[in-house]
Amino acid sequence: MSKRRIDIMDPFIKKKREERGVPVTVTNTQPVMNSSINPLTGLPFTQKYNELYRKRITLPVFEYRSDFMRLLHEHQCIVLVGETGSGKTTQIPQWCVEYARSIGKKGVCCTQPRRVAAMSVAQRVSEEMDVALGQEVGYSIRFEDCSSAKTILKYMTDGMLLREGMSDPMLDAYQCILLDEAHERTLATDILMGVLKEVIKQRTDLKLVIMSATLDAGKFQQYFDNAPLMNVPGRTHPVEIFYTPEPERDYLEAAIRTVIQIHMCEEISGDILLFLTGQEEIEVACKRIKREIDNLGPEVGELKCIPLYSTLPPNLQQRIFEDPPPNKPNGAIGRKVVVSTNIAETSLTIDGVVFVIDPGFAKQKVYNPRIRVESLLVSPISKASAQQRAGRAGRTRPGKCFRLYTEKAYKNEMQDNTYPEILRSNLGSVVLQLKKLGIDDLVHFDFMDPPAPETLMRALELLNYLAALDDDGNLTDLGAVMAEFPLDPQLAKMLIASCNHNCSNEILSITAMLSVPQCFVRPNEAKKAADDAKMRFAHIDGDHLTLLNVYHAFKQ
């Protein structure tokens, strides 16, 4: 199958075509800067808008604006590859808004795999468009909707768009839909791609933009019937990569040691980005780094340690954009170190990072259909992820990446790409959502990577057992209600059944407790104290009632 790559049109060719009378579609290639009035609000542009505009026009993606607008007019689906930091997440949706407003009143939505990204990008874009967050630009994530009837550009998690599809299968509210970070291949993104592939056949006015940060976009192109591919290079500087000579026994220990060594020994200024696997590890690392630096005395430069993970409150997430501490009078360099999950791999760009420490691990969901158990395991990352992490160091100037594994492990042991989530997940909720969306023939549903038949069979068995599907595999009335809850099918059924047993209050509390991160922490240095504290709430009938005890104690 041939692949189309869009080359930048030479202005000289364009001129000759016009002379020959060949029509050339040229859109307004500059955002509204020549006018002093904001067309969205009717108010004059602020000083901040002008400052941000001057920054926007320096982004690599900005040079490709007219080409993108031409493609958007000519094609229904576009695959866009833009390296992290090229500006695609903030700029492309704004151009889609201009397109949507020029032809009608429908809005634009841009999906993100992570809640943090949806919120922080919406905040940034509302400032760039000079509007209030929650008005013309908003976001929608689980448990929080910051949008209004005025909203024309909405950032949301991929799961939220899937939920919208349940009540509006044709997604009629939108003129353009952008799937960002498609290379992450989350469960919801994969299902959305399958659903939208069908929707665009029936809604010829809908525009679909698939945005990816990695270059394996040929697969997306092929999947969307040979859609045109647009390539936007990022502005990256060379990154020097260092490996460890021997495998590290304790990557957390090695990572903390490397942070201290960089801070003490590197003579150039620049911030540090350390990748770890989860909240608990990150909190431990931040405490340890602070303690080590304090022990080194007042002569050492200040090191500000900032954690970043998805359940961190939004105001604390914004700390990653703070300036590093100033240098000391003796010349000791002040730096900040951001200790993050793989959220900082592609979703968020942190300027000022010159040193990246990559232990080579991330938490991944793994499902065993035989024993029907889904676990979150610390697993080695893929080569594609390792390259993304290294690239974070070369955003503003030449950088260094310290990989805490051997070069041999990188070349021989790591997979090329991350295994799509759909191939390693329990598909109970997926099947329920697809049935609710009206897709009955799951065997022939156009998945980009079809899951194993056994996994699908297990999901159908489970839903039949829960009475969400009848024996012919059709959605029951109970199943339709279960699909409305953003929960695992078992929890949804439990919640609905609780009404008949007069225990809805308690079941609601337990379900809520199971839907948020674990409330018990067990730090390495205080395991016994943590276990004793948990025993105070323990219930003889198991974990669910233990959680209920915790909730009641919290309320009192």
TrEMBL record:
List keywords of the entry alphabetically: ATP-binding, Helicase, Hydrolase, mRNA processing, mRNA splicing, Nucleotide-binding
One GO biological process term is: RNA splicing
Give any Gene Ontology cellular component.
spliceosomal complex
Q: What is its EC number?
A: 3.6.4.13
Q: Which InterPro entries does the UniProt record give?
A: DEAD/DEAH_box_helicase_dom, DHX15_DEXHc, HA2_WH, Helicase-assoc_dom, Helicase_ATP-bd, Helicase_C-like, P-loop_NTPase
Domain called Helicase ATP-binding: residue spans: 69-233
Q: What is stated as this protein's family in its record?
A: Belongs to the DEAD box helicase family. DEAH subfamily. DDX15/PRP43 sub-subfamily.
What is the recorded name of this protein?
RNA helicase
Q: Which organism is it from?
A: Ignelater luminosus (Cucubano)
